[in-house]
Specification:
Blueprint (H helix, E strand, L loop, with lengths): L12 E7 L13 H9 L3 E5 L10 H22 L1 E6 L1
Length: about 90
């Protein structure tokens, strides 16, 4: 999670979820760290999401479920983390 400078839990900051790409067979959250830092420097909270990779055992449908779970988690913790209801992915 990348926070804008001076971010406080009492803030209600718009948030962006960042997914690393890689076609469900490769990738890691650190692939999007540079862009996450740029979003944070621009005043947004940026969250680099880890989803499961296929490795022959996980289907794309399950990986999409991971993306939905990330969105639900973010919404569920928004008040504690100083996030607004405005979440982009």
């Amino acid at each position: 999670m990348f926070l804008p400078p001076g971010h406080r839990a009492s803030d209600r900051t718009p948030t962006v979820l960042l997914f690393h790409g890689g076609g469900w067979s490769a990738g890691a959250p650190d692939w999007v760290f540079p862009v996450a830092r740029r979003f944070a420097d621009s005043g947004l909270v940026a969250i680099a999401v880890q989803d499961r990779l296929s490795n022959g055992a996980v289907t794309p449908l399950e990986a999409i479920g991971d993306a939905c779970a990330a969105l639900q988690w973010t919404r569920g913790h928004a008040a504690d983390l100083g996030l607004s209801g405005r979440i982009a992915g």
